[in-house]
Write a structure and sequence with these properties.
alpha+beta; Rossmann fold; 6-stranded mixed β-sheet; two-stranded antiparallel sheet; 5 helices; 8 strands; 32% helix
């Protein structure tokens, strides 16, 4: 379980919102705290830093993602991740590095992603460059090179929009 001081009020809010079927979207920390509050296991990954653009397999296609391709490439910047998703969550995006990268919750009102669809290319590189000398060189170098892979962030943003429109 995450050990974030002062996060209990946020966890309580998430649980109440989930129970009331209040629409929720979590990105990165939001993904993690939602999963934690709803019974998942979230902690620092032993895989180290996830930086740059990663490619995720689309493992499930709920209605709002019906047209999704087999994989989506989206920027990420994290060490913590959802290790075990909550029982009420279906994994919709996964990779070897982040097996629980996207979660659609069974109440139909909650959705979360570990990667950052809001990051443009320049910002995708920035968190990696800021970690030079603090994180191992290999993941930093790989992150900078990863922007050569075309971004699917606009598609993910569209799926998020469809999620909310379809509610």
């Amino acid at each position: 379980m995450m050990t974030l001081l002062g996060s209990d009020p946020l966890r309580d809010f998430i649980r109440r919102a989930y129970e009331a079927r209040t629409p929720m979207l979590g990105i990165c920390f939001g993904h993690q705290i939602m999963a934690d509050a709803l019974g998942g296991d979230v902690r620092k990954s032993d895989k180290g830093w996830g930086l740059g653009r990663h490619t995720y397999e689309v493992t499930s296609r709920p209605g709002f993602m019906r047209a999704a391709p087999a994989a989506l490439s989206v920027a990420c910047s994290h060490q913590d991740q959802v290790i075990v998703p909550p029982r009420d969550a279906e994994v919709i995006l996964a990779s070897d590095f982040t097996p629980n990268a996207g979660l659609a919750y069974r109440n139909g009102a909650a959705l979360s992603f570990q990667p950052h669809p809001e990051f443009l290319d320049d910002y995708t590189i920035a968190p990696a460059e800021l970690r030079q000398g603090k994180a191992p060189d290999a993941p930093v170098d790989k992150a900078v090179a990863s922007v050569a892979t075309p971004s699917d962030s606009a598609d993910v943003a569209g799926y998020i929009g469809q999620f909310f429109v379809g509610r």
